[in-house]
Amino acid sequence: MIPKRIVVVAAFPLNQNGKIDRAGLGKRPPHDLHESRDAAELSARLERLDVDLLSLVSEFVKPAAELGLLAERMTTGSSDLALLVLVNDRSALKQRKREVSGNVIEYLPTAGSYDSRLSLVVHGIKINLDFVTGPAVDSSVLERLAGGWIVHGHEVVKRVAAGLAGKVG
Question: Are 70 and 151 contacting, i.e. CB atoms less than 8 angstroms apart?
Fold first, then answer.
C-alpha cells in the first residue's frame, strides 16, 4: 500500500500512558497569530514561523499581476488564517497546483465573487486563500475589505474599495 501523502511532524502526540495518541495526530498546535494588533505584527509573527504570505500568494498569481492582499483578524489560537487576494482579472491566476513546498492544496467550491478558493496547512497553520478578480468584485466583498488588514497592495485594495463604495452608495 502506498500512502497518499507523507506528513512530517516535529513530535508525536502522546497519551498519558506514553503511547502515540492517534486522536491527537490530526490536531494542529495552537498559534499566537490571533494576538496580532495589525498587519505588520501579523507579518512579523508569520516570518518567525518561516511563512511569507506574499511568496505563498505568488505561487498562485502570475508575477506581472497587480494584486492586493488582505488578512482577516483571527479570534483564537486555533483559528484559520483567512486571506483575500484581489487581482485585476482571471488571467492573472496561474494554473492549479496540487501542492506548494510539500503542502497539499485543497480546492474549495467557489460562490459569488470568488474565482478560486483554496486551503492549505503551512507549519501547522491552516491558510485559506480566496481569490477575487476586478470585474467579479461585488458588494459581498465590501465587508471583508472593511474588516481586514492590508498586507500588500494598498493602492489596489483602496481602488477596489472605492469602486465598491460607488456601486453601493
Answer: yes
Q: Is the pTM above the cut of 0.85?
A: no
Choice between 25 and 76, residue whose per-residue pLDDT is larger: 76
Does 66 fall in a domain?
yes
Q: Which CATH number do you get for residue 49?
A: 3.30.460
User: pLDDT by residue (tens digit) across 9-26?
Assistant: 667 778 888 888 877 776
- Cβ neighbors of 34 (< 8 A, separation 6 or more) are 73, 74, 75, 76, 77, 79
**Nearest-angstrom CA–CA distance, 61 and 95:** 9
Q: How many residues does the chain have?
A: 169
Rounded to the nearest angstrom, the gap between the alpha carbon of residue 136 and the centroid of all alpha carbons in its chain is 20
